[in-house]
Amino acid sequence: MFVNQFLFLAAVLFCIGVYGVVARKNAVLMLMSIELILNSVNINLLTFALRNGSTDGHVFALYIIAVAAAEVGVGLGLVLLVYRNKKTISVDDLSEMRG
Amino acid sequence: MIAQNIGFWIIAIVMIVAALRVVTTNNVVHAALWLVVVLAGAAAQYILLAAEFVAVTQVLVYIGAVMVLFLFGTMLTRARIGTESDLNNSYKKLGIPVGLVMFAAMSVALVSSFGDEKLPQTASVVSTQEISDQIFGPYLLPFWALSFVLLAAVVGAIVLARKD
Predict the structure, then answer these.
(1) What domain count does chain A have?
(2) What is the CA radius of gyration of chain B?
(3) Structural domain of residue A55, as residue ranges?
(4) What integer is the mean pLDDT of B30-48?
(5) Which residue among A12, A23, A69 places its CB closest to the CB of B66?
(6) CB within 8 A of B95, min separation 6: which ones?
(7) CATH 1.10.1740.10 fits B1-84, yes or no
(8) For residue A4, is it within any domain?
(9) How do the domains of chain B map onto residue ranges?
(10) Who among A23, A36, A58 is closest to B89 (CB)?
């Protein structure tokens, strides 16, 4: 197996995730796109762990999984709060901080 | 090696199709279910990369916990479950060139850096003991920091979501 086939898979997933973050208006769907990006990073880390024969990449991948879980928890708490106050979770409607 | 390659390409194509459905479907619940396919495919790729502990953690944390959170978030923020028309920005066409340019830049960098370099053929599976020796040895300080991040996230989520 080539190194590049895993790295290209991760690159494709990353770009799809970036497209999702740019194109989506619904806050929950934006969080899902961020999960795609984080998963592509994990594939990269584990590929390089195997290539270099070290376990550091595994540790970083586990840390990223934990941080992603925390991020989703706080993110969905924020989305719930926004929904309760504004009755919508479309990020285009949140313009209070626009000057 | 041949079997692993065939497995890789099948899983990779399924993952890419599912990821495209996540960012293009018009139904939030369907997007969450397509995301399950992507996450399960990622777990399978981790096993191909000789990382079985990370793969099991991926299944437990992502498919078990994070997906339940997403489905609850969908349920709590929307009255009806079904197709919606206004999930995308008005300028969503702008995302396509952004993604393609990023992919082109990454492709050039990957091809010029790694070319046709191969992964080691005789790699053994990384055992859970090796990973725990790393986490509770040189990486103990980040582990503590991560514990505080999780604690702060739990408390913050409760503070944000409670009613009063």
Answers:
(1) 1
(2) 20
(3) 27-91
(4) 94
(5) A69
(6) A18, A19, A20, A22, A23
(7) no
(8) no
(9) 1-84, 127-164
(10) A23
